[in-house]
Each structure stands twice: as C-alpha cells, then as structure tokens.
Amino acid sequence: MSAIKYSKSKKSSNYKNHFIVAGILAGVGLALLVYLMFYVAPAEVLETVKIVAITSQGCIGETLDGYAVNVGNCNAEPGDYISALVDQKLKERAALMNPTN
C-alpha cells in the first residue's frame, strides 16, 4: 500500500478552454484589423501642389500649407501647379515631428 493515491487523469471532454483561446485570438485579430484600418491606411485627398523639383523618384511638390510630398511621375516643370493626391495622415505625422509650425 502506498500513502499516495493513484488515480487516472481524466481527459477533459470540456472544450471551454478551446473557446477561450479562440476568443482571445479573434480579439487580437480584430484589434489588429482596427489598427490597420484607422491608423495605417492612407487618407488621400486631392490638393493643389506646386512642383518644386523633378527627381528619379518622381515629382516633388509642396502643398499650399507647406508640406513636401512625392507626387510620383508627372508631366510638369518646377513652378507649375498641379492637382495631386496627398496623404493627410503623412501631413499629420510630419506636423507631430516638427512642433515649430
């Protein structure tokens, strides 16, 4: 005889733990989707841009409020005004990095 009782470990047929883990994974996935949709995805607006330079990467323009943007390929000369899509979130980030504005 032994002082410790020997008992067989029962395999749980309860799937409660599986649902908890699946719920946590689904919550993390949903949080990642929300982050990507609202903070990373561009919010492009058509703005008037003055072309200041033409590089191998495309045209560099300056918005009317003073932000430099890469317009991409364009058929304009420095000094011309064109309409271009400008990412508003990049402008917000640039303003946060340069607090002197």
What does this structure look like?
There is one protein chain. The protein has a domain at 44-97: Beta Barrel (OB fold (Dihydrolipoamide Acetyltransferase, E2P)). It has 101 residues and is an alpha+beta fold. A hairpin with a 4-residue loop joins strand 2 (58-63) and strand 3 (68-72). It starts with 15 loop residues before the first helix and ends with a helix. A 4-stranded antiparallel beta sheet has the order 3-2-1-4. Helix content is 35%, strand content 30%.
Say how many strands there are: 4
Based on CA inertia axes, which overall geometry fits? Answer: rod-shaped
Helical content stands at 25-40%
Radius of gyration: 28 Å
CATH third-tier fold name of the domain at 44-97: OB fold (Dihydrolipoamide Acetyltransferase, E2P)
The helix/strand order is HEEEEH
Mean pLDDT: 85
**Largest sheet features:** 4 strands, antiparallel
Low-confidence sequence ranges: none
Strand adjacency order, main sheet = 3-2-1-4
CATH architecture level-2 label of the domain at 44-97 = Beta Barrel
What share of residues are in beta strands?
25-35%
How many H/I helical runs? Answer: 2
Q: Structural class, from helix and strand content? A: alpha+beta
Tell me the distance between the termini. Answer: 84 Å
